[in-house]
């Protein structure tokens, strides 16, 4: 009987241990789901913060030319094309590393930059569409002469790839916070006025042989890409100085 009690007690301990393990596992699963959802939706209700951008010198023009934004002084003798996506993490790293060097040459009147903001990762936000919405909004910001401030804020406060992007209301609020007062900006964002131009430009860009690079699995197009004189620039240290030399 003593042995029987011992066996029963052991079984009871096993049941308790299994129950505790199940409860802990369930808590971990629920916690993981909550953490994942919270991370995915981290942009919800957030105000995109305007950034203290590199100073733009007098005479530097920011204007839209179709689906491209041209930044620089009219007398600039060198031109580069930058192809990027506001959701692309490597594009953010590119901006952090080279933005000040590029802007210095723009301010000096040597360099003109043609920004091509592309919807390459349009399906990589949840819900899909952030790459297109942000590209469209940046063109509308260029119409108001505020492209650089808008552009820099979106890269500084970049949403997580695979998560929720900023919605149109948040993009409009950023435009207002960087000094856009024309109500045409909000209309352009809400209606996606430049979406077709952006999509057409992306199709042309992504199939342009001169912009193809080998990323280890054959030639293709990727962001960020910089081109000068019809050739892709190797983004190594000192490339800005080489371009303007």
UniProtKB/TrEMBL annotation:
Gene3D superfamilies linked: Glutaredoxin
Keywords: Disulfide bond, Membrane, Oxidoreductase, Redox-active center, Signal, Transmembrane, Transmembrane helix
UniProt cross-references to SUPFAM superfamilies, sorted A to Z: Thioredoxin-like
Keyword Membrane: yes
Transmembrane segments: 15-35
Pfam family, one: Thioredoxin_4
Keyword Lyase listed: no
Residue ranges occupied by any Thioredoxin-like fold domain in the UniProt entry: 69-206
Single GO term (MF): oxidoreductase activity
Family membership noted in the UniProt record: Belongs to the thioredoxin family. DsbA subfamily.
Protein name: Thioredoxin-like fold domain-containing protein
Organism of this sequence: Amycolatopsis regifaucium
